[in-house]
Design brief:
By secondary structure, this protein is mainly α. It has eleven helices and no strands. It has helices at 2-7, 12-21, 26-38, 47-50, 57-65, 79-90, 100-111, 120-133, 144-159, 175-191, 202-205. The chain is globular and about 45 Å long.
Length: 211
């Protein structure tokens, strides 16, 4: 969806401005824009979100079986804040890696896809609360941080396989990050619209699976 928006007549000028702000040529920027959009809900790979009362009991049970739990004495946070806080760690194994300042700013961009950009104090506080919330794993069990890194690695393998350069946000440029956040939000709204993309059972969403 994000890639199609970037190449659409109405959005391509916006995507071109985002590319310039990222310091990339248009075609080199598209994989990165798509990759970042795909990571905007990274914060949903977090115990409080996955153990919501509204979550299917089968999901909660399967997470508990592998040792992924939630410390219920920890503070509940918006998933956008978790995305902003966790992005740096989630992509730390990527090579080459964008510079630290760019990663930090991109994290806040993705974390603001619901309209509020997390500030540094909020992220610092979130980091402390995440440590508490994710501290209940049994020895040898997978970690929530490891799960987020695996998700980011899988997306990078699919979406960045042809990317040659890394983004570097220009100092003093605030318009490009805001446009990126807007593009991610629109792609999210369109992609979540069940009138365009109806829900499919899991067996239809897995290659080669049969009901």
């Amino acid at each position: 969806m994000t890639e199609r928006l970037c190449h659409s007549p109405r959005c391509s000028p916006i995507a071109a401005q985002i590319a310039e702000g990222l310091g990339l040529q248009f075609e080199q920027a598209i994989p990165w824009i798509t990759f970042l959009a795909a990571l905007h809900d990274l914060g949903k790979a977090y115990p409080h979100f996955q153990f919501l009362n509204a979550a299917p009991s089968a999901v909660r049970e399967s997470l508990q079986e592998v040792g992924l739990r939630v410390n219920r004495h920890s503070e509940v946070m918006q998933h956008g804040t978790v995305t902003a806080t966790a992005l740096k760690d989630a992509i730390q194994d990527m090579q080459p890696l964008p510079d630290e300042q760019t990663i930090s700013r991109l994290g806040r961009v993705l974390g603001g896809h619901h309209g509020v950009f997390p500030i540094s104090q909020v992220i610092s506080r979130a980091r402390r609360h995440m440590s508490v919330a994710e501290s209940t794993n049994r020895p040898g069990a997978p970690s929530w941080a490891g799960l987020r890194r695996a998700l980011a690695a899988s997306l990078a393998e699919i979406l960045l396989c042809e990317a040659e350069d890394t983004p570097a946000l220009k100092d003093g440029d605030n318009s490009s990050p805001v446009l990126l956040a807007a593009l991610v939000s629109v792609a999210d709204w369109v992609g979540s619209n069940e009138e365009y993309f109806s829900y499919l059972p899991r067996c239809h969403r897995t290659y080669g699976a049969r009901c």
